[in-house]
Write a structure and sequence with these properties.
Length: 378
């Protein structure tokens, strides 16, 4: 195919999959040529090698790209798989991922989810305990119910539990693969892969047919952390892949949380090391909310209660004291109220309001925001 007949998207796809060119060099090339990938293919060898990081091997890959990449076959595979190739200029490219220093110039994607909601990554060991699996599933469900997109890597163990937790409440979840988008690893997660693609998104940086290796998983991990506001590590030994994700998160300026475990459990050693090194100890979703300090419209909208399913408040009817029920009524309509506002609205004294709010917080019916006001969680 002649260079002048390439579309911009095709040019991005070719560059993304050429050998001997990493994401940092690709982004330098794009910057040098005004962000236009088509200009890279019309450049001379000398112009290409004038860019820092571009040597003879890299320039040769660009100038003879048809020897390395079968564009027609790749596009045919995309069509057969019902997948798409997106760039940072497309709506479905995760916003936070654009901010890292080595973002992928393109992603293969299955699923229509456009990442309108903030993302939280839940990662951990493949060789996990029942405690770790239960914790990941619970956190995945609670974060998804609150309106976050749960990001993980579709691996065995913690990743699988995190995805399943989000799906169990009808929430959004995204899987980032360390392979081509056509390779499901592990194979037993084929059903989970399909469920994620139906309601969320499956992403991969690599072309069709790319198998997993140590390098591909590390590259995947930087995307998992890069597209997320925060990374939560749930069980990892000190040399686990989740520790690489945490390191990337630190370099990218993301919040890092670690779930504590038993001191004699090797799968908790990595989490304990992270906590010693400054990660936030995680005891529940509220720890994430407090650290993120979402205010006003920045906080995602919770998933609406399914029709016919009783809300938490309805389930607690008859179990609330008259004072608690009176205070809960003040939050109808999504009001954000301080103690003085609640005292005036309920005809209760400020000390009564404070004591009742503490009781309602323990019952997970209200939560205190970073600005000191309270809001209902029902």
């Amino acid at each position: 195919m002649a260079h002048d007949s390439l579309t911009e998207r095709q040019a991005f796809m070719i560059l993304n999959d050429l050998p001997n060119i990493g994401p940092i060099t690709l982004n330098r090339l794009l910057t040098e040529f005004g962000g236009d990938p088509l200009k890279i293919f019309t450049a001379t060898k000398r112009q290409l090698e004038a860019v820092r990081g571009v040597g003879p091997e890299t320039s040769a890959s660009v100038l003879a790209w048809e020897q390395h990449f079968n564009l027609a076959r790749e596009e045919e595979r995309l069509a057969q798989a019902g997948a798409s190739f997106i760039t940072a200029r497309d709506a479905g490219y995760p916003r936070m991922l654009k901010e890292i220093h080595d973002p992928p110039i393109g992603l293969y994607r299955k699923g229509d989810y456009l990442f309108e909601q903030p993302c939280i990554a839940l990662v951990g060991s493949r060789r996990t305990t029942l405690y770790g699996q239960a914790t990941a599933k619970k956190l995945g469900a609670e974060l998804a119910r609150l309106g976050f997109c749960v990001v993980s890597g579709l691996a065995r163990g913690i990743d699988t539990a995190a995805h399943e937790g989000a799906l169990s409440v009808g929430g959004k979840t995204a899987a980032v693969l360390g392979t081509g988008i056509d390779i499901i690893y592990p194979s037993e997660n084929l059903g989970l892969y399909r469920r994620i693609a139906e309601s969320g998104a499956v992403l991969a940086e690599f072309p069709f047919g790319r198998k997993a290796d140590r390098q591909s998983f590390a590259m995947r991990n930087r995307i998992v952390s890069g597209m997320s506001d925060a990374v939560v590590v749930i069980e990892s030994d000190v040399d686990g892949g989740a520790m690489i994700t945490a390191r990337f998160a630190g370099e990218q300026g993301r919040l890092i949380f670690a779930v504590p475990g038993r001191i004699d459990q090797p799968s908790s050693a990595g989490c304990h090391q992270l906590i010693r090194d400054g990660a936030t100890l995680l005891t529940g979703v509220d720890d994430i909310l407090n650290e993120l300090s979402y205010l006003g419209g920045l906080r995602p909208s919770a998933i609406p209660q399914p029709e016919g399913q009783p809300s938490v408040l309805e389930q607690l009817q008859g179990k609330l004291t008259p004072v608690e029920a009176k205070l809960v009524e003040c939050f109808r309509g999504g009001a954000l109220l301080g103690i003085d506002d609640l005292a005036a609205a309920s005809d209760l004294s400020a000390p009564e309001v404070s004591a009742t709010l503490m009781s309602l917080e323990l019952k997970k019916l209200v939560t205190k925001r970073a600005d000191g006001t309270f809001e209902a969680r029902v």
